[in-house]
Write a structure and sequence with these properties.
Layout: E1 3-5, E2 20-21, E3 48-60, E4 66-75, E5 83-90, E6 95-98, E7 104-113, E8 118-129, H1 156-165, H2 170-184, E9 186-187, H3 197-203, E10 205-206, H4 208-221, E11 226-233, E12 238-239, E13 245-253, E14 256-261, E15 266-267, E16 274-279, E17 294-296, E18 301-305
Helix pairs in contact: 1-4, 2-4, 3-4
């Protein structure tokens, strides 16, 4: 079986993706869901409701029908310090899968797609957003302090820089890390492959993903829980487009996850504009492997965002 996967689209070239991968198994593994939970003594502060709309057009590019076409997509994360997913509806029936980290995936069985035919999968999500980060319990903090792919904590270049940026408090350390990354790394626009924190620190260039990995790596070396998040950034209810997709870092300070977006020059503000689809983790434990947004179970299928 071959699998079509997406990191995210390059809007300057095309929204059609043709990257194939043959190692992602198609399965519906049910896992215990250990999502973050709000602390009992804090009121609900998710006061701004956003409507998120997006659609995928799945096309059969060959002259014969494709049977048992399958498609999977990340859905908005249920609970974050700045986000509480209320409802999700799709134009096709789907089975939902959840991970320990709080990620959700919708699995779609699209049946038969005729020669050169198309199927449209549309989503409408209601999400309550917070202007300030809410306090949430941190389950298993150790997983946000370890080395992972693209987060090379043990490399001397990263450990040395983190010590140079260390402040008198965790918050001051994060401010220094943010300032360094936002000023020293050059944004080069979309790149098709993840390169990671070490690459960004050594070459001082990258896209939003490299900014994210850099902040996460430097924070973790200093013992500050940090993670990468992927999703959409926008200010109003709208139908999102490929260029709205973005990766950013979050750090855990004072009982809450705070957004640290060095690429967009945003330090812990405008949290209501960041809608999370995925909390990043190693491909080996991710619901959709190395994909940032979706998986299609046939390399003859192409996808574009509508």
């Amino acid at each position: 079986m071959s699998i079509l996967v997406s990191r995210y689209w390059n809007p300057r070239i095309s929204t059609t993706l043709t990257l194939s991968l043959s190692v992602v198994a198609w399965h519906f593994l049910v896992v215990v869901f250990e999502q973050e939970s709000k602390t009992a003594d804090k009121p609900n502060q998710y006061q701004q409701q956003r409507i998120l709309r997006f659609s995928y057009e799945i096309s059969n590019s060959q002259s014969s029908a494709i049977k048992n076409a399958k498609f999977s997509s990340y859905l908005p994360v249920l609970l974050m310090s700045n986000q509480q997913a209320i409802d999700i509806k799709a134009s096709q029936k789907f089975k939902e899968q959840k991970s320990r980290s709080g990620n959700r995936v919708g699995h779609f069985d699209l049946g038969v797609i005729p020669p050169y035919g198309k199927k449209l999968v549309s989503f409408v999500a209601k999400i309550d957003m917070a202007e300030k980060a809410n306090v949430v319990n941190l389950n298993h903090p150790e997983k946000y302090l370890k080395e992972e792919s693209y987060i090379e904590l043990s490399h001397p270049a990263i450990t040395k820089l983190s010590q140079q940026l260390k402040g008198h408090s965790d918050r001051q350390s994060i401010e220094r890390i943010y300032q360094w990354a936002s000023k020293r790394i050059q944004y080069v626009g979309y790149t098709s492959q993840d390169k990671g924190a070490l690459y960004a620190i050594q070459h001082l260039r990258g896209d939003c993903t490299e900014y994210m990995y850099t902040v996460v790596a430097l924070a973790r070396v200093l013992g500050i829980p940090a993670r990468g998040v992927g999703g959409y950034v926008y200010q109003h209810n709208q139908v999102v487009s490929p260029e709205d997709y973005h990766n950013w870092a979050e750090v855990y300070l004072d009982g809450a996850w705070h957004i640290v977006d060095a690429q967009k020059k945003n330090l812990m503000v405008n949290t209501e504009d960041y809608i999370a689809l995925r909390i990043l983790s190693d491909a080996s434990v991710s619901l959709l492997g190395s994909s940032h947004r979706f998986v299609v179970a046939n390399n003859q299928l192409t996808i574009k965002m509508r």
